[in-house]
Amino acid sequence: MSKLSLLYKHGVGEVMHVPSDSIRDLMIEELIEEILRNDYQKGIAKKWYLQPLRDVDNVRYRQEIFDDLMKDRTLLEGLKSFVEKMEDVHRLLRMTRELTYDTNKKGWFLEAALRYCKTVEALSGLLEGSKFDSSGLMNLREYVTNYVASEKFRVLKFEAEQLKKELSSLKYVLILQPGQVTVKEYEDEEEYASAIEKTFEKFKQAECDEKYRFDLRKATGMNHVEARIVEFLRTIYPETFQMLDNFYTRHADFLDDTIDSVAKELIFYTSYLSFLQQLKERGLPFAIPRVSTTEREEIVLNTFDPLLALKSGKHVVQNDVNLERAERFMIITGPNQGGKTTYARLYGLLHYLAGLGLPIPASRAKLFLPDGIYTHFERKEEVESQKSKLEDDLIRLKSILENVTQNSVVILNEIFSSAALYDATILGKELLKKLIDIDCYVAWVTFIDELAEVEHEKIVSMVALVSPEDPSIRTFKIERRKVKGRAHAISIARKYGLTYDDVKRRFSNESSVAERRVS
């Protein structure tokens, strides 16, 4: 049986290039921390979340699996249970490598094999009883069905169950004396457990509180006394313990590589859907985007920053992205703290998530799959650095321009802010010209209104809106509009009586009062 993957249809394929600066600026690490909530998941699945793809076949392969899981809650919960139980099997196997006493180790190895067989059979039943359309899950069902019917699995299951039955049937007598424990063969001696329970039954008042319960089966290691008792038992039942030794040797590698790797790959799906569910319960939309490396128009409706939405707990403002025909550039202007940077970052994040094959925060989406995502966000000026902030901006820009292609996404945030407005405008227009020639996708947050006023078929002006009733209130809506220039500043000045006419009138009134006092 050939090995299958739920992440790759035909190998890894082309990978999207996302430099470490972009990972940081898009806050990818923070998002992964929220998705992968425990260390076991991080150790396995984080590498996949850091490798977005540009292979359309692989992306759609993942999307089909997500679509099936989002439609069938029972299937999703069953696969989550499979992942957790396989994790438990691995925990037992790790423990056997750490245990000191040989028989103790082999006993827990047997328990791991029993749980593995039960887990795989449950997976087989789940897949057989579920309907889905994705080729990935159909391939998995076929593989598991064949594996469960294989001689290797049937022998493992039969021998494990027989050995467990044999060990469970062993009876022996312990004679406990001060400083001495004697182990002898059972010879129909009276069983005291039921007699003791009957004697103390009258003192029983209620069921034991759950917090005081202790599961003896979770005690894993042996102390030296227990180990000696087992060694004595080996002399009483040598054949049974020889069966245990043989089972350990014969089935040392009982884990099927494909079943094991699929269990790990499923963490990629189950962890993201658990994260997504938290936001869906608040009424926020998620959709599987239509992706392409040839169709360059983009539309995303009702999108939002998932990390911000998760942490805020407040009403989440949703925005749209719409780039038609030759449009490639979104020049984003407006008042500070109006959501411009969040919007630009989200634009990059949407392409990143789409490259992973994940459902994205939106009610509907169509996105181009870029070959790379490059960001240029402001950095704190380092005191020990000999470079000025502007020089650092230009050096970082040079690196981006050397790597960016027609198929890339570039996110620029308040670049050239350290330069005088006149210089920043000249530099901004020169950069804009270079990027237009490259024909890549760009989301550019800027204080330079003149960039948004450039008439070009590739440029779209996006403006962060404020409340029409009170311009000091940000709505965090970003819409396609012509740049307002100083309109926002004028509206604020008007609100507080600080327009040119207001100030002129006030000085005029004060002068009149002063003249009357003199006279």
From TrEMBL:
Which InterPro entries does its entry note? Answer: DNA_mismatch_repair_MutS_C (IPR000432), DNA_mismatch_repair_MutS_sf (IPR036187), MutS (IPR045076), P-loop_NTPase (IPR027417)
Gene Ontology process terms (BP): mismatch repair
List the keywords (alphabetical): ATP-binding, Coiled coil, DNA-binding, Nucleotide-binding
Residue span(s) of domain DNA mismatch repair proteins mutS family: 327-512
Sorted alphabetically, the Gene Ontology cellular component annotations on this record are: cytosol
- TM spans, by residue? none
**What's one GO MF term for it?**
ATP-dependent DNA damage sensor activity
Query: Coiled coil where?
Result: 380-407
* Taxonomy, superkingdom: Bacteria
**What's this protein's name?**
DNA mismatch repair proteins mutS family domain-containing protein
Q: Which organism is it from?
A: Fervidobacterium thailandense
